[in-house]
## 1
Amino acid sequence: MQYNKNWYSSLRKSPLTPPSWTFSFVWPILYFMIFLSFYLFFTSSKKFLSYGFYYFIIQLLLNLSWTTIFFSYKKICFSFIITILLLFFIILTIREFYKMNKLSAYLLIPYLIWVIFASYLNSYICFQNKST
């Protein structure tokens, strides 16, 4: 996805914002862990269409929509709301995955921690750049 780097660099960001290369390093690792987690859940689940499955799909859709809403539509505060919803559904997913396969739940913990951090970064941008 192409986005306006000038727009993003002009935003007031948290002093804790990591360098941009960090995101392209961390996300592929997290996505690998997310899909490995789903695979373990899927192969050990007795009921494919369970709450865990639905929560996983919802959190994945929220995750994937964030980039478009933040960078393409530049809806900074709306994207923050998405991160809050995302956190909620990640927690629900972990809870449901834990019931079927503990490792599948544990694999989502780094993702949860990263999204908590990303929520903080997004909230900082939201509240420090109120005009957008």
## 2
Amino acid sequence: MKLIVALADLFPQCFAVFEQHRQPLKLGIHDDLLAKLNGAITPKECATALRIYCANRFYLQSCI
């Protein structure tokens, strides 16, 4: 998804394009993203990107 790539470019400490490098995100990060991006993405786009990002099996394994 293009938005995940853009988030990884903007926030490389938080997001990774390569699935094996994904680490748990902080709770409530969607609020931080929406505030930081100041209308560049909609809340729906943000939720969709985070849902896809967090549903990845490598991400879920890193949460255990």
## 3
Amino acid sequence: MRAPIDLHCHILPGLDDGPTEQADSVEMAAQAEADGIELVCATPHIRHDHDVRIYELHDRVEELNAALRSGGSRVHVAGGGEVAETAAEALADDDLRAVSLGGGGGWILLEPRPGPLSDSLARAVEHLAERGYRSLIAHPERHPSPALVERLAELTKRGALIQGTAAYLEGENAPLLYLATHGVLHVLGSDSHSSRVGRPLRISAAIRRLDEVELLAPHIEWIARGAPEAIIRGEPADPPFAPAPP
């Protein structure tokens, strides 16, 4: 299998609740490289409680890439953002494109509001679709409810894909396995915020776990690399498997 791609990572320093200094960002890239990851999407929070200036993001990404190259890292950082459901509609067209994953202008990493998924998330997906973007729904494991599988399946019918946090596929009682077995998990991200605390920038263990899921095992290459590549290029990425009823 080719190297996986991390579609959700708070690797840019001094912006949101990610690393406070570039040295930590460089260490995060070292974690990625050790895990075989060579491409990471920088996805700072785009929401009211973080003062992220979208017009600065391109230069911030280039600055970090220059530091990584000078240190001999093989990791490349692509642009993006984690856009809050409550912020998506207010973003200007140029800003929305600037925070699209990979800058490809096709996909937005969409963060649901806290609590169970609701009709407002579906409306945000529809709003983005009207503006020419498909949605990648972030960390569904944070929104447990009896109707979660049905809600996610409905979002996929609207053209969305679902991105799970890799760390939640590790361990004996991995909460994402339930979603994986029901076919409402499509790609992974580390959602790492620092090399020093919290989730590591690591995906390979989660990929191996998904390879044990009967429904997904034939499609591991698509999950780890095919779909993320298409998303970063701004191209369609239609799942090769369908949701299974709970």
